[in-house]
Design brief:
The complex is a heterodimer of chains A (206) and B (466). Chain A is α/β, with parallel strands linked by helices and 206 residues long. Chain A has two domains: 167 residues, Aconitase, domain 4 (Alpha-Beta Barrel), CATH 3.20.19.10; 32 residues, no CATH class. Chain A is 32% helix and 17% strand. Chain A contains nine helices and seven strands; from the N terminus they run βααβαβαβαβββαααα. Chain A has a seven-stranded mixed beta sheet. In chain A, strand 6 and strand 7 form a beta hairpin. By secondary structure, chain B is of the alpha/beta class. Chain B folds into three domains: 178 residues, Aconitase, domain 3 (2-Layer Sandwich), CATH 3.30.499; 88 residues, Aconitase, Domain 2, CATH 3.40.1060; 165 residues, Aconitase, domain 3, CATH 3.30.499.10. Chain B has 16 helices and 19 strands. In chain B, the strands form five sheets. In chain B, strands 5-4-3-6-7 form a five-stranded parallel beta sheet, covered by helices on one side. In chain B, helix 3 links the parallel strand 4 and strand 5. Chain B is globular and about 55 Å long. The N and C termini of chain B lie far apart (58 Å). Classes of the chains: A alpha/beta (206), B alpha/beta (466). At the A-B interface, helix 4, helix 7, helix 8 and helix 9 of A face strand 1, strand 2, helix 2, helix 3 and helix 5 of B.
């Protein structure tokens, strides 16, 4: 399935200055109500965003409820963002809400991979650079140029790293399955050879 | 020319490496794919919609565990979360459509995926296994290459029989010394995370080694490996030994008799060579482990129950947990107690709790629930009369599944309730909105349920109070 390519993005930031924001916070399990990838944006950060689980009154203390941040498309967080449960719904909810870029000191592994597969650009930056960005005023506009791997804000430009593969998935909007299926003959060949070495893996699975 | 010494992980990786996938990553063959109803239905549906077939359906298993009701008399579609039935039905329908194995809610083989994968011989030494669940690292306890993935990666593995993975860095944690009486694998795992932090695993494949690990039972090893993801490890593995070979023998999906000898030969070679190098090495003295209870909202925030919580403790976590620095955990009144989960829902876990509960009553203000990790664990526990002990003590005795380990909507503990739990995550809201979770071993949970407050079992109390 082809996705919308991610090439350049410009937008505003919302800062969540907390470490270890886990996927249970990004989308609580109770908010995963349909068998699909949509209908999740309302549940994004539900535990923080609303005053209580049953009452959907916005919690005024939560950054995305601040009118000046309601159009933010870039999240900035601390260490280990997206740790915990592997639920891909966390990424689907962020995307549906409108988030396109997440800047953090580090990410949960599974979450990071899920981002690349779903059109969200995860950017790892050093603690110093992350702190510098966190300290910026809310109306600073960020421009992210993925082919150039540059993050522009105010008079500054910061280079970020991303794997060539991750970049390709995002820039070309590719489906990783289609990419891998190009090597399907190689995979089949491996399976055939491996079956002679480890037949119990392939046979007698009743 | 002698070849470079290899780690256990290197060997597992090499035996599944199809080739380079460019950019430093490898294409890794996937032997077994496990799905559950929370995301399995979505993955199978997306696959069908995009026109991809399941490459090897006989090696894919769909299991109902995440949101099935834990009521003892549940019907096959009963969910513990409102509207959850659609996930169960969709996963069942899509599994039948795709022709993969289906282990339904009330199948005698049903249970939490990481509990039944070893029980049924789906997880075996030397196999690669993935599941869209972060606690898949548990299965490394059998010497398998097992890790948690996202659900679109599960689609990828089903469609192609392979995954594109960057080889992770490697860490060996060598553990020596005897675990003190009254402590177990859960305390050991929390001890490691508390000492080295929730990011201490540095995205590594972590090999647990040393005499303490060798002395752990297979079930205890599963508990130790289960918590690797809370340590930010890519996964965990343990060298498979005779205990594992005996454990695996004769299980429904284990290698057929005709292959048993060849399989055993290969499995014996699954060990780290002498002088093999790791990116990181840690060493742990098991004799220093004490019963631990978490006080905060990360498993790393755990301490001995009589130790006052540090004045420097994370204030956000303290506020959420309703705690003041300087006070110990011991004696804090609890409202709930839960025993179960892929961390501590196996027979040995229930036995250790039952030992404490025998002839005792849960404090009247405590809502206590025990949910065996699988139908097999439940049957075995009932054959030993453990259910009678739990029920007589005042525990609810539920039907197998993830149950109260995570909140999915529906009935749970009320806001601000303080719960002691044999699970793996104490994140904000994990067991329900504003519910305060304290992680502990099944023995500590049982002792606390009886005391009505955070307490440890008699056998683990230090002889002299310092």
């Amino acid at each position: 399935m082809k996705r919308t390519p991610f090439i350049r993005h410009s937008g505003k930031i919302a800062v969540l200055p907390v470490d270890n924001i886990d996927t249970d916070q990004i989308i609580p399990s109770r908010e995963m109500k349909t068998v699909g990838r949509t209908g999740l944006a309302d549940g994004l950060f539900a535990g923080w965003r609303y005053v209580s689980a049953d009452d959907r009154t916005p919690n005024p203390d939560f950054v995305l409820n601040d009118p000046e941040h309601s159009d933010a498309t870039i999240l900035v967080a601390g260490e280990n963002f997206g740790c915990g449960s592997s639920r891909e719904h966390a990424v689907w909810a962020l995307f549906e809400y409108g988030i396109r870029v997440i800047i953090a000191r580090s990410f949960g592994d599974i979450f990071f991979n899920n981002c690349l597969r779903n059109g969200i650009l995860p950017i790892r930056l050093s603690p110093e650079k992350t702190d510098r960005i966190m300290a910026l005023t809310r109306d600073t506009t960020f421009v992210i140029d993925l082919p150039e791997q540059q993050l522009h804000f105010g008079d500054s430009a910061v280079r970020f790293d991303i794997s060539a593969y991750g970049k390709r998935l995002l820039v070309e909007g590719l489906d990783p399955i289609d990419l891998t299926l190009k090597s399907f003959e190689q995979i089949r060949h491996f399976h055939r050879e491996d079956e002679t070495l480890r037949p119990w893996i392939y046979r007698a699975v009743h | 020319m002698s070849s470079k010494p290899q780690t256990l992980f290197d060997k597992l990786w090499a035996s599944h490496r199809i080739g380079s996938a460019g950019d430093g990553a490898d294409l890794i063959a996937i032997d077994r794919i496990l799905l559950h109803e929370r995301t399995g239905g979505v993955a199978l549906k997306m696959l069908a919609e995009t026109g991809h077939a399941v490459h090897a359906p006989s090696r894919v298993f769909a299991i109902m565990d995440h949101i099935v009701s834990y009521r003892a008399d549940r019907a096959a579609d009963d969910a513990r979360s409102p509207g959850g039935e659609v996930f169960i039905r969709e996963t069942r329908n899509m599994a039948q459509y795709a022709g993969i194995h289906l282990i339904d809610s009330n199948d005698p083989r049903q249970g939490i995926v990481h509990v039944i994968a070893p029980e049924l011989g789906i997880a075996i030494p030397g196999a690669s296994l993935v599941c869209p669940d972060s606690h898949t690292c548990s299965l490394g306890a059998l010497g398998a290459l097992a890790w948690g993935i996202g659900s679109s990666e599960a689609e990828h593995a089903m469609a192609t029989g392979a995954l594109r993975v960057n080889p992770p860095p490697q860490m060996r944690i060598t553990i020596h010394g005897e675990l003190p009486e009254g402590t177990g694998a859960k305390d050991l795992a929390l001890h490691i995370i508390a000492q080295h932090g929730a990011s201490g695993g540095k995205r590594c494949a972590v090999e647990y080694a040393g005499s303490t690990v060798e002395n752990l039972s297979v079930e205890e090893r599963l508990t130790l490996c289960n918590l690797a993801v809370e340590f930010s490890a890519f996964t965990a593995i343990i060298r498979p030994d005779d205990k594992v070979f005996e454990y695996v023998e004769g299980r429904p999906f284990s290698p057929a008799q005709e292959y048993a000898h060849r399989a055993a030969e290969q499995w014996m070679a699954l060990e780290t060579d002498e002088h093999a190098e790791f990116d990181y090495e840690l060493s742990i003295d098991a004799s220093q482990v004490v019963p631990l209870v978490s006080w905060g909202t990360s498993p790393a925030q755990s301490s001995a129950i009589h130790t006052p919580i540090s004045q420097k403790a994370d204030s956000r976590a303290m506020a959420y947990m309703g705690l003041e620095p300087g006070a110990p955990l011991a004696g804090l009144r609890i409202d709930g107690a839960f025993i179960g989960s892929c961390t501590n829902g196996r027979l040995s876990d229930l036995r250790s709790a039952a030992k404490i509960l025998a002839g005792q009553k849960v404090a009247s203000h405590v809502h206590a629930v025990c949910v065996p990790g699988s139908q097999q664990v439940k049957r075995q526990a009932e054959a030993e009369g453990l259910d009678i002990i739990f029920k007589s003590a005042g525990f609810e005795w539920g039907a197998p599944g993830c149950a109260m380990c995570f909140y999915a909507g529906g009935i749970t503990f009320p806001p601000d309730a303080r719960v002691i739990s044999s699970t793996n995550r104490n994140f904000e809201g994990r067991q329900g909105p504003r519910v305060r979770t304290h992680l502990a071993s099944p023995a500590t949970v049982a002792a606390s349920a009886v005391a009505g407050m955070i307490a440890q079992s008699e056998s683990s109390k230090p002889e002299i109070d310092a």
